[in-house]
Amino acid sequence: MAIPLLAYAPSCPNQRVDALGARDDEAIVWSSDDQFSPTDMGNLINAAYRQIFFHAFKWDREIVLESQLRNRQITVRDFIRGLLLSNTFIDSFYNKNSNYRFVEHCVQKVLGRRVYSNAEKIAWSAVVMTKGVKGFVDDLLNSDEYIENFGENTVPYQRRRILPSRAIGETPFNITSPRYDAYYRDQLGFPQPIWQEAVRNFRSYDRQPKTGDPSLFLNMAKSISPKAAKPDLTSIYNIDIYKTVPYRRS
User: What does the entry give for GO biological process (predicted)?
Assistant: First the structure.
């Protein structure tokens, strides 16, 4: 039997106060309401991948969900739900972390803020335990906080980065929050120092020399050691002028 979400309080009285402006960290807000061209929709989709996956490789992309979003068959909230329930996200964030750590990742990525306290982590962890990942994701996306801040068509972004009386905001959670928990990082051997004896230079394919380029023959040219002929060092006193100079007979 699923239990309701446990009650938890913010860590300070002004946690839920609305920002003074449209957004308090001047983040770029991506919404399908004002994205009409294919390029604009592509930028919105990439922003969603950065928010949920931090970086999506070619094999991590959900092509079917992208097509449905481009054709307006699903909303941005449905697209975010699909990314959270994808094999990539489940394997990278749920299977490699405890429930508490998984809750931290999801709250940061979906609600755009850090968890308030351990009480909130325990409350959402109980939802993961009783309803499973899908039920937890649904409750998170159906929460009043998500609907009020992002609605159906806005990609979640990090909120509450700029705080009063602070010149520098908080570091983005994508940088401060490792994907794997400490136990799994230790099992995988992270971090691993990489040492190289020689520095290797990478050249893109379009800058690599083609057939007939003189640089391809540079090593061959260096291997050749041409030697100039030695000059004749015969002294002028050893030359018989009379025999050397042609003499014309009449």
Answer: photosynthesis
Give the tokens for residue 213: 């380029």
- The pLDDT tens digits of the residues spanning 231-245 come to 777 777 777 777 776
- Biggest alpha carbon distance in the chain? 136
Residue 244: strand, helix, or coil: helix
Is the confidence at residue 39, as pLDDT, over 50? yes
Q: Which two tokens stand for residue 167?
A: 């010149």
The residue behind tokens 């850090």 is 114
Sign of the dihedral defined by the CA atoms of residues 56, 62, 63, 69, in that order = negative
> Which amino acid would we find at residue 27?
A
125, amino acid identity = S
Question: Which tokens hold the place of 124?
Answer: 């959402």
Cα 71 to Cα 204: distance, rounded to the nearest angstrom: 36
Task: Identify how many contiguous H helices and E strands the chain contains and give both numbers.
Answer: 11, 0
